[in-house]
Amino acid sequence: MNHPTIQRAVELDDPKLAKDALQEIEVLLRASSDQEEKLYLLFSRANCYEILGNFEEARVHLALALRERPDESSKTTFDFMQALFCQREEKYAEALERFTNVLTVHSEELKRTETRFLYEDIQTRRAFLSVTLRKFQDAIPLLRETLSFELSKELRSDVFASLGLCHLAQRVRAVKTFLPPIPRARTDKRLELAGSLLPRHRLLLHEHASRSEAGIRAM
């Protein structure tokens, strides 16, 4: 399957391209009789609506994609994209729960060599979501595992910064527990300074790569 307009829309996360892609998808769906292609197009359509910020419509078309072929591969993609939509909507606690559920429900599917990239994507997201939700103790082993993955230089830097923030937060908590009280202003300032190293947009975790691979194709 070679659909450059659709692929570019998803990879670039571009609303204008997403609108063009939706028009192309409609034409292709009417003409296609190949189930693999139809599944790809249906998941891509859900992705395009998500790029446009229309999450209600995105979920409608995501359900249609699953209905087309409700096998284990499609169910895994479906559940992953549901979690991704929550993350994009800044429903971080729900997103973390859903990503964790994907690992549990689809554990056998994620053991396949072909889906290794999806497992790594989920673990990386869980790590950063845990930091955002201040679940620092949970985040540390996830961040350490993430360092064993093949990461971009920028993302690896973010992981190290997040680890530093987690260890600092735990140290501050330990000081508060076992030593005489530290002036609140000083403690808060240290956490605020560390937190400023992690802009919120880092939470979106190489969206383009995950969309082009996991979010829009039937595995």
Span between N and C termini? 14 Å
If you compute it from the alpha carbons, what radius of gyration comes out, rounded to the nearest whole angstrom?
Answer: 20 Å
What general outline do the C-alpha atoms trace?
elongated
- Specify the biggest β-sheet: none
Strand content: under 5%
The gist of it:
The chain is mostly helical. It contains eleven helices and no strands.
Any overview of this molecule?
Helices cover about 75% and strands about 0% of the residues. It starts with a helix and ends with a helix. The chain is elongated, with a radius of gyration of 20 Å. The model is unreliable at about 185-219 (pLDDT under 50). The chain has helices spanning about 5-10, 15-30, 35-50, 55-70, 70-90, 90-105, 115-130, 135-145, 155-180, 185-195, 205-215. The chain is mainly alpha-helical. The chain is built from 11 helices and no strands. Helix 6 runs antiparallel to helix 7 (about 115-130).
Explain the layout of strands and helices.
Blueprint lengths: L3 H9 L2 H17 L3 H17 L3 H14 L3 H17 L3 H14 L10 H17 L3 H11 L6 H26 L5 H12 L11 H9 L4
Features:
mainly alpha; 11 helices
